[in-house]
């Protein structure tokens, strides 16, 4: 094959490039979320100008990517910062919705006192709850369930009165994610400590 041409070289180069891309994708799929975020951010801004920000103060960990200095990425949730957070027992695992309702209940003027008074009433009511009398629930657990139901009804009614149409569906979906039992437990704990 004298002077046989080089078309096979082009086909072979295309094949090798396709295999490299395939193995890169397979490698990326097997990586944890932190690596995937880093690769994605690289393709959005390869030089890293937009990630460095405009602040003169360096990041606390000197990490370029948000995932490097905001803890574990898998399963982590970005949260909006709001008012000062109270002492919700498992804030790391709480959803945004639960955090926002906790802010409203625990931080807004008058709300904290109102819900602590409700907690005391429900602690008293819990003594006569059927589950407590039968011995299947503790008084504290019964009070938590009663207060959580009251909180859900109150927050849902307020939200429905202030919205209309499709916004009510959005609010309902968000409120379904709120852990009212966790909030009730915190309010009850706070009311017991204030005695």
Task: Describe the overall structure.
The chain has 195 residues and is mostly helical. The protein has 2 domains: 1-76, no CATH class; 91-195, no CATH class. The chain contains 9 helices and no strands. Helix 5 (111-126) crosses helix 9. The longest helix has 23 residues, at 7-29. Residues 51-63 and 66-91 have low confidence and may be disordered.
Helix content: 55-70%
N-to-C CA distance: 98 Å
Count of beta strands = 0
Gross morphology is elongated
The helix/strand order is HHHHHHHHH
Beta-strand percentage range: under 5%
Mean pLDDT: 75
Compute the CA-based radius of gyration. Answer: 27 Å
Q: How many domains make up the coordinates? A: 2
User: What is the overall number of helices?
Assistant: 9
Structural class: mainly alpha
Q: What kind of sheet is the major sheet?
A: none
Unreliable runs, pLDDT <50, ≥5 residues?
A: 51-63, 66-91
């Amino acid at each position: 094959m004298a002077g046989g041409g080089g078309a096979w070289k082009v086909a072979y180069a295309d094949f090798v490039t396709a295999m490299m891309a395939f193995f890169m994708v397979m490698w990326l799929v097997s990586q944890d979320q932190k690596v995937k975020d880093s690769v994605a951010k690289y393709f959005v801004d390869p030089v890293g100008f937009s990630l460095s920000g405009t602040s003169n103060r360096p990041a606390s960990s000197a990490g370029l990517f948000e995932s490097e200095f905001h803890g574990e990425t898998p399963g982590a949730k970005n949260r909006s910062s709001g008012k000062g957070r109270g002492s919700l027992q498992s804030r790391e695992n709480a959803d945004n919705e639960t955090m926002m309702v906790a802010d409203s209940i625990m931080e807004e003027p008058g709300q904290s006192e109102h819900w602590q008074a409700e907690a005391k009433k429900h602690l008293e009511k819990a003594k006569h709850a059927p589950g407590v009398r039968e011995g299947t629930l503790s008084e504290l657990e019964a009070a938590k369930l009663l207060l959580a139901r009251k909180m859900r009804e109150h927050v849902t009614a307020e939200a429905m009165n202030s919205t209309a149409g499709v916004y009510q569906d959005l609010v309902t979906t968000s409120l379904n994610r709120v852990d009212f039992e966790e909030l009730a437990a915190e309010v009850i704990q706070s009311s017991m400590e204030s005695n």
